[in-house]
Each structure stands twice: as structure tokens, then as C-alpha cells.
Amino acid sequence: MDTPASFERDRAELAEEIRRLRAESGMSGVLVAERLGWSQSKVSKLETGKVTPSLEDVLLLLDLYRVPQELRGELETRAGDLNDRYRSLRMLRKRGLHRAQEDVGRKARRTTHTRVFQPTMIPGLLQTAEYARAVFSQPLSMAGTDVARAVSARLDRQAVLFDSERRFDFVVTEAALRWSMGGSATMAAQADRLANIATLTNVRLGVLPWNVPVPQVPINAFTIRDEYEVSVESFTTHRSITEPRDIDFHLRIFQLFADAAIYDDEARTFLADLVREHA
Q1: Distance between CA atoms of 234 and 220, rounded to whole angstroms?
Q2: pLDDT in tens, 63-99
Q3: CA distances from 233 to 3, 21, 191, 237, 242 (A)
Q4: Less packed terminus of the chain by CB within 10 Å, N or C?
Q5: Which among 237, 267, 241 has a CA at the least distance from the CA of 89?
Q6: What is residue 1's three-state secondary structure?
Q7: Measuring CA to CA, which residue among 151, 147, 14, 22 is closest to residue 82?
Q8: Is 144 helix (H, G, I), strand (E, B) or coil?
Q9: Each residue of 139-184: pLDDT tens digit?
């Protein structure tokens, strides 16, 4: 599977290829740094795999080393894949999480079938404004976030739910529904929104109760876009998995959870009970 270890391995292999190309060019690390206006430390870190080179960095190096087109295309693809697979959430926040939301929105608009499993919180596509505000206001993991812009961008991308040509399957655990974000009033409004969204013909919402046995322990949230990508996010990183075998694995895991969930009237009754609990 695509893991931090496999990411580090692939980054090390790209770094070794970059180092080899420099050696073949006859240039020293000092000369490369001078030509590109970089520090020598940056060149060294790229060649030892201590940092992930941006696609722009790789393109500059390929130009400098006059790499043949066939090899150039391969290295461009590998560099782009590394940057897509494992992005620092700290850097995403620096860039602006509203822009990250816009990126996710663009992916959603080119995806026909979206499957989302969430064991700990309400999926972003289904969040109310106040719930999203509470998510983006977390003091540790979301420090430095422009909350208002992030919330606005998250709500904007929810418009894709109303495109009847797209299909959405959500499975959320009871824990995700009960974990309080923003207080009782926010949670009651959130449960009510879920019940309303579940009436859309292109949206299927499953609730996985605590007392239902499942053959696989829910470890983390993930989103499957058609059959071309799985997105997994931790406290500090965002990974995009594109390996077909890993995508197939997540499809099978999702189906296990989906088969164990409750739907339609049973799910709406469950949500209505939650609203009454928060009243």
C-alpha cells in the first residue's frame, strides 16, 4: 500500500536519479546552486532525499542538465506524483486552506462517483457552516487557518451534491455523529442537515452504529474518487493514493462498512433521535 515508508523510498530513488544526472553533467553542487540561485544546502537536501523537490525544482534541474525528452517526461511524472501523494498540511495552511478546498472542489466536479468513509467527524461535503467553523477553528491542527475563507470555500464546493449526474455514497460511524463539534445546537442542526441531504436521489447516506459488528477495524477516514484516486488525511499530511491495487483495497474496505450500515428510514430515525438528544 502507499505508506509514508513507500513515499520515502520513492523520494530517495528520485533523489538518487537527480544526483546521478548532476554527476553526468559534470557540474558540482556549488555550480548548480549558483546557476539556479539556490543555496548549496538545498541542492544537497534534494540529492539526499531529505526534502521533496517541487515539480518546478525538478523542471529547472532537467533544463540545466539538458536531460533527453524521454527521461525528462518520466522524471516529471515521478516528481508530480510525489507532490500529489504526500503534501504537508502545514504548507497547505500557509497557502490557504480555502485554496485547498477549491482544489478538492475541482476534483469533485470531474468525479462521477464519490465514496466517503468517515469514522470521526462529518464529511466536509455534508457539514453545516457552524460545524465547518468548529472544524477549522481547532487550535492545534488548524492553527493559522483563515477560518472564514475556509468555511466559505467548503460550503461553495457542496453545490456539487445537487448535480444529479454525480453519485455520492457516504458511510459515517455513530462516533462521528456523536463527537461534539461546536456544541449541542450545532450538532442538532448538523444531524438535521444530514437527514435532508439523504433525501437526494443521487446521495446515499449510511450510518454505522456502535453495536453493529464489522470485519475490519475503522482506522482512518478516506475518500475514493471513481477508481482513480483515494485521498487520506492525517493531522499533518495529505496523501493521494493512485496505485490500482491500493484503490481496489479501499473499494473493498468501503463496501464492508457500507454493507454493515443502516440507510433510508432507519438512518433518518437514528438522526432524528440525535436531534432530540441535543434539544
Answers
A1: 8
A2: 999 999 888 888 988 887 777 665 554 555 555 555 5
A3: 12, 34, 24, 6, 15
A4: C
A5: 237
A6: coil
A7: 14
A8: coil
A9: 876 766 788 988 998 898 899 999 999 999 999 999 999 999 999 9
- Whether the model clears a pTM of 0.85, i.e. scores above it, the answer is no
Cβ proximity of 205 and 104 under 8 Å: no
How many residues in total does the chain contain? 279
Closest to 154 (Cα-Cα) out of 178, 122, 176 = 122
Characterize the bridge pairing of strands 113-118 and 167-173: parallel
User: Distance between CA 262 and CA 209 in Å, rounded?
Assistant: 8
| Residue 22 grid coordinates | 548532476
Q: How far apart are CA 161 and CA 157, in angstroms?
A: 8
Amino acid 233: pLDDT = 80
CA distance 165 to 150: 27
Dist CA 201 CA 164 (whole Å)? 8
Q: Characterize 149-174 residue by residue with b for buried, 16 or more Cβ atoms within 10 angstroms of its Cβ, and e for exposed.
A: ebbebbeebbebbeeeebbbbbbbbb
List domains and CATH numbers for the chain: 4-86 (1.10.260.40), 96-278 (3.30.870)
